[in-house]
């Protein structure tokens, strides 16, 4: 064998070893996911203390695996190898991303990782109690502790970045405040007048039809049918019940979504499931053979949210979807929907109404909820706002943005679990997801000219295949911005979201 | 400080460090329990492959923790310390047991531990397929592999013991074939004639009353009420549905039991839950502050089974229990039980009938099922019987013992999950548990003279408190034989089980 071939073969072996190690860390990480899923769906009331011990123990083992110096040495060797320079593009990107990940994890002290894991479990339990009693005092010390820990985490893991960007980068690699803030501002400048027009309209959608009696058992069959129909594979997933719907992946063939049920409001479960199943389709669409490696992992939370929002809003709140779905709904709920029709149903789903609770917000005002949190959490991380002042500032800014004021902290600053769980820098990914979703859907419609006709016939396979090709197949080899630009042949912009909102909400509110 | 005090204080610190380390291993072990529970209750059909990767990854981490040389050094130091000689009895016992555990684990190669964990998951999946199709061929190669692995495990971990004893010792520390075999033989010599008398009787119990319609939703309320009443704490536990009922502890405040339901046979769920809740009461009765240490862990599977069998059979099939329970049952199932009464219900539960399936067997013939498996598995481990010959030998011996012959392997050798899961040496603990249960109940009745009256009034607190004092509080500081002898002031014997069976099943079958 020539020296060149020898070195190439040892590079390949090194690359395989690095991948094995990363996969092993992902296997352990997937056990953490199970601990989290179980905590939110199954854990007995008094099991919380031990669960936080389990989470902390496992977090430190995962961290140890992720920062194993032997892996660091292998990666360093690879980075200098010809594979990193001349290998296939996917291999080069994998090496670059694993190097970045390793360096980030290696900068985090194990003690901090363990404390964060334990504090997240305990603070979320405090949050649940605080919200139940609408008592800010219960949560406040935990948020103080959590924001201090997060600031420390940000400073450790990315000393080269602004502390808020350092945290946001965990959820949206490459996202920077300097870019996101003006993008959001442009969106805001167009959403605020749209909300005002909708609210002022004399032809507002009537959603009484959605508030009839929809027996839970029938809803369960209905939403399972719809989730299956859009492509969610129940052989590789489950649907359970929680107060706060979520999607969690326990393994490449084990994606679990949850929803809540409201007997007197059909959209709660229906759109909860469309949303979470959208996340699930992304997870189930990732390349199984690359589990635990960048090519088999989600690109970012913004891209993840684009998949859920696309199915929930771009599909689920479209006239075409209801052409197909309405007869099915009427068959499942013959009493409630006897006198309804597809157009009335679809229009009923488009009522715009400023409201207090983010997760109950309509699609248009939703983004204002996100922007509020985005600015607050950045100020908290930078120390420009004190946790103690948060409830008052929240209520004041909320009243300013929405024209209404929370009557209690449970309806205000206590409504979200995110900050207690250590998810800081996470909120902006929701509105990024909305923008990506609209942009992807516009491009899918351009490339699949018959798409509306297919959806109106309950055929979702071409759309899903397009998403798999354009988004899922790339894993996280690209960051969200280049990924969207490659899929859509256009720069990321708020333009498509505003078009989609105006095209659906305008007519529903009788706007010109 | 004097030299003596200094050394005492460093011994204490060393003991604390050893305990911390053992607790940490137990925390990781409890995550393994969650993986197992989830696999049996929640896992999507296609999630099995990844679950076996998770189980193997975690098993090797747990093994690493349990065999950490630093812990070995600390234990060795402790064993030579004055604490091990003159410390409090519980401390001395803890040191001795941790030393034994450590040595056993340290003798197991990590590769074997990982292979066992992975094979157990895969073989159990093969077992499920084999049983569903009644196809021995599907299971056979997995059992060949598993018995080879188990023989290797036995030889590694206890080279000082007979290979079967080495495995049995995992489940029933201190149990030896030489002692158990003659004990079982004495029991068999008395059970066989009792079965013959019962079967030959002209006054057999009529169980038609149990085969009426018992709606599942009502059964769910009924069994939860009974489980709560005997003391199972649902704040620290759950009840779920599986084909094969089990009890699994995920943490000191997280004990999960399962049952199955049969709309047309009340005992399935009722006695399933009494049994599993009995296990659960033991787990919930262990000292929380000693979690992960011998003082807070179950003594053995035989002792564990004694707790489940005591509640299931000694309590649940007694006239006193039905005095209390029947009115509740009649209130829950007014249609099915309109014309019934407590005495008829209790008698209906005592029908003796040789049958093919262990888990459906009556209390008397049950032990014959166990003895069959006990002898077969020992011969398999010692190489006296080949896996390939197992189905034929099973059927032949079964026909000999029971006078009936399985019509398919699903009704024969494929019925139990144990061997595919690597549980070899486990079966005898069921019959040991039956004996311990009867002996404990006899002693409880002697020490609590009003016990029957209490049970007839639905008061179970004194009995539970006696079990907590006499059994639960000791953890595994004592092996099962001395534990029973201490609790009952008498040698372990089959005598009490035979008395209990004769006292209940004799009258029910009109025997003299």
Description:
The first copy, chain A, is mostly helical and 512 residues long. Chain A has a domain at 177-508: Neurolysin, domain 3 (Orthogonal Bundle). Chain A is 65% helix and 3% strand. Chain A has 21 helices and 3 strands. Chain A has helices at 3-41, 48-66, 69-79, 82-86, 89-106, 110-133, 136-157, 163-171, 177-200, 216-230, 266-285, 301-315, 319-332, 342-348, 366-382, 390-402, 428-447, 451-456, 461-470, 480-488, 495-508, and strands spanning 237-241, 247-251, 254-259. Chain A has a 3-stranded mixed beta sheet with strand order 1-3-2. In chain A, a hairpin with a 2-residue loop joins strand 2 and strand 3 (254-259). In chain A, helix 1 (3-41) crosses helix 3. The radius of gyration of chain A is 23 Å and the shape is globular. The A-B interface holds A 24, 27-28, 30-31, 34-35, 38, 42-47, 49-51, 53-54, 57-58, 61, 233-238, 250-256, 291 and B 24, 27-28, 30-31, 34-35, 38, 42-47, 49-51, 53-54, 57-58, 61, 234-238, 250-256, 291.
Q: How are the SSEs ordered, and which strands pair?
A:
2 copies of one chain form a homodimer.
Chain A: H1 3-41, H2 48-66, H3 69-79, H4 82-86, H5 89-106, H6 110-133, H7 136-157, H8 163-171, H9 177-200, H10 216-230, E1 237-241, E2 247-251, E3 254-259, H11 266-285, H12 301-315, H13 319-332, H14 342-348, H15 366-382, H16 390-402, H17 428-447, H18 451-456, H19 461-470, H20 480-488, H21 495-508
Parallel strand pairs in A: 1-3
Antiparallel strand pairs in A: 2-3
Helix pairs in contact in A: 1-2, 1-3, 2-6, 3-5, 6-7, 7-8, 9-21, 10-11, 10-13, 11-12, 12-17, 13-14, 15-16, 15-17, 17-21
């Amino acid at each position: 064998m020539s020296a060149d071939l020898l070195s190439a073969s040892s590079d390949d072996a090194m690359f395989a070893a690095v991948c094995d190690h990363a996969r092993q860390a992902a296997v352990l990480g997937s056990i953490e996911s199970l601990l989290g899923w179980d905590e939110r769906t199954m854990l007995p009331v008094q099991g919380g203390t031990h669960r936080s011990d389990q989470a902390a123990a496992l977090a430190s083992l995962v961290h140890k695996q992720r920062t194993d110096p032997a892996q660091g040495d292998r990666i360093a060797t690879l980075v200098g190898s010809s594979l990193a320079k001349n290998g296939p593009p996917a291999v080069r990107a994998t090496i670059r991303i694993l190097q970045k990940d390793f360096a980030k994890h290696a900068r985090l002290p194990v003690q901090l990782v363990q404390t964060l894991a334990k504090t997240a479990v305990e603070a979320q339990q405090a949050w649940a109690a605080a919200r139940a009693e609408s008592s800010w005092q219960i949560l406040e010390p935990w948020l103080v502790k959590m924001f201090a820990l997060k600031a420390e985490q940000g400073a450790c893991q990315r000393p080269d970045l602004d502390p808020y960007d350092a945290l946001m980068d965990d959820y949206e690699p490459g996202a920077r405040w300097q870019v996101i803030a003006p993008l959001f501002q442009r969106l805001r400048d167009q959403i605020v007048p749209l909300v005002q027009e909708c609210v002022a309209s004399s032809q507002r959608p009537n959603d009484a039809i959605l508030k009839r009696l929809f027996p839970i058992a029938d809803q369960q069959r209905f939403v399972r049918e719809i989730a299956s129909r859009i492509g969610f594979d129940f052989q590789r997933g489950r649907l359970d019940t929680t107060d706060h719907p979520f999607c969690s992946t326990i393994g490449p063939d084990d994606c679990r979504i949850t929803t809540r049920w409201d007997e007197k409001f059909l959209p709660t479960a229906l759109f909860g499931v469309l949303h979470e199943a959208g996340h699930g389709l992304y997870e189930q669409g990732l390349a199984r053979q690359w589990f635990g490696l960048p090519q088999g992992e989600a690109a970012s939370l913004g891209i993840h949210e684009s998949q859920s929002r696309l199915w929930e809003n771009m599909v689920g709140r479209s006239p075409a979807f209801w052409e197909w779905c309405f007869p099915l709904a009427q068959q499942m709920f013959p009493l409630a929907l006897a006198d309804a029709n597809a157009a009335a149903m679809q229009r009923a789903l488009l009522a715009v109404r400023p409201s207090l609770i983010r997760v109950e917000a309509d699609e248009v005002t939703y983004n204002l909820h996100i922007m509020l949190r985005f600015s607050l959490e950045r100020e908290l991380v930078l120390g420009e706002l004190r946790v103690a002042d948060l409830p008052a500032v929240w209520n004041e800014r909320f009243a300013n943005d929405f024209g209404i004021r929370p009557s209690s902290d449970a309806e205000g600053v206590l409504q979200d679990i995110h900050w207690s769980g250590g998810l800081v820098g996470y909120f902006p990914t929701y509105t990024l997801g909305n923008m990506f979703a609209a942009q992807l859907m516009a491009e899918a419609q351009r490339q699949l000219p018959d798409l509306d006709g297919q959806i109106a016939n309950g055929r979702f396979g071409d759309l899903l295949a397009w998403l798999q090709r354009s988004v899922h197949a790339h894993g996280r080899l690209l960051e969200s911005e280049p990924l969207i630009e490659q899929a859509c042949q256009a720069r990321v912009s708020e333009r498509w979201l505003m078009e989609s909102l105006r095209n659906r909400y305008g007519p529903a509110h009788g706007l010109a």
